[in-house]
Amino acid sequence: MDFRWNKWITPVGMILLLSAISCATRDSNKTNSTDQKVAELLTQMTLEEKVGQMAQINLTVLAKGPDRFNSIEPLQLDEERLAKAIDTYHVGSVLNTTNNRARTPEVWNTTINELQNRAANTRLGIPIIYGLDGIHGATYVAGATMFPQQISVAATWNPKHAYEMARITAYDTKASSIPWNFSPVLDLGLESRFPRQFETFGEDPYLATVMGQQAILGYEGPENDISTPYTLAACMKHFSGYQITRTGKDRTPAFISEHELREIHLPSFERAIKSGAKTIMINSGLINSLPVHANKYLLTTLLREELGFEGVILTDWEDINKLHDRDKVAASRKEAVKMAINAGIDMSMIPYDYEEFCDNLVALVKEGAVSQERIDDAVTKILRLKFDLNLFKKATSSPEDYPDFGNTKHEQLAYNAAADGITLLKNKKGILPFKKGQKILVTGPNANSMRTLNGAWTYSWQGEKTDFFAAKYNTIYEAVRNEFGKRNVQYIPGISYPINEDYGQAPKFEYYDQDKDQFEQAI
Fold this sequence. Notes:
The chain is an alpha/beta fold and about 525 residues long.
């Protein structure tokens, strides 16, 4: 190329061009350096150590408690369980929380420091990669800023809100030493009966694509540099067509034509991949009678080869086992592991019976049913992610380095998103805005509930602990009462949900049933 000054190349243009070449060279050198480190580490690993990197287990498995499903409070890790999982089975990833509840940044950092110190003292010192679901804020971090659900962010039609939500979620999550977030949801909310529409950016492929791209930018930063203190690895989910089931129920079969798949369901994922998303989680259901976790065409031919995704492919909760337990396409759990790994899965979210997964996969490789090359390919991608996150040099954070955690500036951004997402469907006879001194009836089973106001993924999986963590905020009834005065505002439920008193730490509402509760007064 001729770089002489002429009418086509100005001095400023030359500076920008040379800067771009320099950045590209640095990126290439960084990539080559990481690839070399990964390759060197891979040659030192035993088969068992490689398989351990492909296993992701729930934190409860490592905590003190009566069993693998329940933990004592306060949260404490169990020495014997740590030794078995990390020292013996070389497990490389941990997720979720214990007792289905948010933890403070201080508790998270204490816990993850202990995990990382344990990993650092193994033969090769490979760090743990920890993942959480932060769907509309750092969901499992007490005191973090909660944003509206994705569906409400989409209702703003303003991509800036998706970006700010992701950026602040990344900040609050990294304040807790957690570098991996299972978000954004890029599924389309096309099936009105589906119970998880609130997690999506709506039904329009273009809107979901633009919002998803901004979320990736907020999580991973403008150059996808996830090694910084304020960025983390994003995880697109759930690839693909997850919410368009025939029954309208979660994790049930869908039938999607090739045209519909490409025209409607793939654009949001394709843009996210081009935007540099580091990881992807797979659809838990079946498409055209074949479980997606066993579908080599979708996972390898389409996702890897055609769309060019080079990151980590992760299962959803227990989904390899479900190839046998639920879908009956595998004669045993061992065969289910073979099907999923050969189809293209890199990491299995087990999350409890990790020994079975690891033992089965080691045996399958020794039997020749899964190739060593497939294992090396998966582990290479996992190790590269850990190097990209800078976990080998700095595996944890310190809460004091995050002074903006939960501050009013972040809360204002969340408020702006919520305000912009308000959609007034009908204002019959101009009843809004309410006039001062007006008598107001607030009714309905959800009018005085923080849980239903915030939805799932709020301090716990189904949000049932929201009242405990967010008591200082107002329900709809409380907000109206505070604005217009207690004497002018009356709350009558009319309908209420029965409560299961045996649920434990938080009340469990039986939403399938409804009881009349001052019904006559309400009507």
